[in-house]
Amino acid sequence: MDVISVIRTKRDKGELSPEQIDWVIDAYTRGVVADEQMSALAMAILLNGMNRTEIARWTAAMIASGERMNFDALSRPTADKHSTGGVGDKITLPLAPLVAACGAAVPQLSGRGLGHTGGTLDKLESIPGWRALLSNEEMLHVLDTTGAVICAAGDGLAPADKKLYALRDVTGTVEAIPLIASSIMSKKIAEGTGSLVLDVKVGTGAFMKNIEDARELARTMVGLGTDSGVKTVALLTDMSTPLGLTAGNALEVRESVEVLAGGGPKDVVDLTIALAAEMLAAAGIKDADPAKALADGSAMDVWRRMIAAQGGDPDATLPVAREQHVVTAPSTGVLTRLDAYDIGIAAWRLGAGRARKEDPVQAGAGVELHAKPGDTVTAGQPLLTLHTDTPEKFDYALKSLSEAWDIAPEGTAFTPNPIVLDRIA
Ligand code: URA
């Protein structure tokens, strides 16, 4: 095998053979294929695509690059959820303990934020003492004793994807459906979950800007999971506006705790319950009522045990940013658009996100929303509050908000998008 012939095959719109795929993934993981060669191949894949056979083999080769976990010893069925990423997407925080409270084991290997999308681990790290890095034994122990664990994936899980994802991130090759699908599913299949619910985000704040691309990504991932024996279902959900009323690490933890306490914004509650119902059905758990488990405090009990088992103090005061800046509505009328991407960029610029993997994040930074599309607003009322420890960033953040909303004349009829747009099984 030589890498140049593999690159040429895809550059010339050919089909990669199983042997070419196995070899190139293994050789790249071992450092025999160089980053610049893999970048050329990733760009050829982005431009010319891969068929289902190639994507399945590519995924299998990435799984084979590392270890596979196994949860067979647990007494409960396993159910996991993966979101393709969005703004204000804190759903994993209430969802994992909720589904555990209803009888499943939830091994939630999560990631950090990059660019305008937030990361679950960054959010949880704003809880004093909480640890994202667990050994496999610690992870199994937390899962077994509390029913849910949210932690970082170990280095041994799909190492080919770790290397390739970091490369794609700096070579403009993230947005390729075959590469996104194989990246996500290799980690989920290697993780060993019995069932998986995918939350495929659609809209300005998501990777997939339109519903057709999102359907294609969802169908590809559902096919990969099903073929590997993982019961997989996808919901396509709206990401044209941020989820809930907060985007930022500690701000989103606070909102998640409100949901676990039986309150919280309606869109966050509705999506949490919709995903919980899908996870429980996929895990074969009947007769559980996620709405009841939120209302009666049993999900909150699991949350408190899960946070404490990972070193966190569930009663600790969450960090608050040192400075705030209020943005007011310029006119009276109906808010018809509050753009997820623009809000995500503002939160990132305020310090909630990172530009490079190794950058620190500010726990208290982010954006708080005081209105959502469909609400009537009055000129001069607070629309957003920006939070940061570094007030010199306000101007830069405000620039990303210059076209972030539309306000239509009072009385304009407007129906916001439903949160769940489609389901692919
Ligand atoms: N998340 C992943 O894990 N991989 C991708 O390629 C995109 C999002």
TrEMBL record:
Molecular function in Gene Ontology: thymidine phosphorylase activity
Pfam families, A to Z: Glycos_trans_3N (PF02885), Glycos_transf_3 (PF00591), PYNP_C (PF07831)
Known EC number: 2.4.2.4
Keyword Glycosyltransferase: yes
Domain of life per record: Bacteria
Uppermost EC category: transferase
Domain Pyrimidine nucleoside phosphorylase C-terminal: 334-408
Coiled-coil ranges (or none): none
SUPFAM superfamilies, per the entry: Nucleoside phosphorylase/phosphoribosyltransferase catalytic domain, Nucleoside phosphorylase/phosphoribosyltransferase N-terminal domain, Pyrimidine nucleoside phosphorylase C-terminal domain
Assembly, per entry: Homodimer.
Protein family membership: Belongs to the thymidine/pyrimidine-nucleoside phosphorylase family.
Protein name: Thymidine phosphorylase
Source species of the chain: Streptomyces litmocidini
